[in-house]
Amino acid sequence: MARWLVRLVGEQFDVEELPRWFPSGEVFAVREGEYVYLTGPALEHHKDAGEVVKVTRKALDELSAVISLLVPNYQKPTIDTSIIREDDDGCRLKHHVLEAEPGRIRIKGTATLTVKGQARPSTTMAQDLLAASKRSPHLARALALLSRSDASWPHLYVALEEVEQELRAASDAAGLCSSGERDRFRSTANNAESAGHDARHASGKFTAPRRPMTLAQAREFVRKILEAALSGHP
What we know:
Number of strands: 6
Number of domains: 2
Oligomer: single chain
Number of helices: 9
Shape: elongated
Distance between the termini: 43 Å
Helix content: 40-55%
């Protein structure tokens, strides 16, 4: 069967997550030898390679945003913009353009969930979270904000606001965190002495919290709330 194949470029640490979490769907990942490609029915709606690249980039943003919720230190790969077209006979037309990425050294731990006596689920957790985000503009925006590599206090604050818009309640009232955690996050984000230049308000306007959050702690706080909201079980 004819198909487009768009090769992922990046560290193996990150690239290998795509076929693990998205083995099927409108855009999904397949491994062939040492390479991983994005392919799928959504790409087949387009005959022009340039349009395929645009669609693939958007899909990669969405898939990677969800994976970043589940995999610590995940970094979104890029795509090889010279893509492959495979015809019905399996013949391929390909042109290679490689995109370099800065080197990084990271350590990853993985866990596998096994439920005795039950069949393996037909979709992965990442696929379910992505589907949930597509049903809610608020959660989709929160996911996009949180997954930014440069996510700052304002990004995280708005992400929380988007989740709470979807919930129609404060996150603590919805049972997703304690009131103390939520107050600590909001106080830190609002206070220039705690959040620095990325604070949401001018210095001296708000009292600093007794134990301000670090940016990493704030990201994890919002991540847990967003994952719970997407999962549909506080």
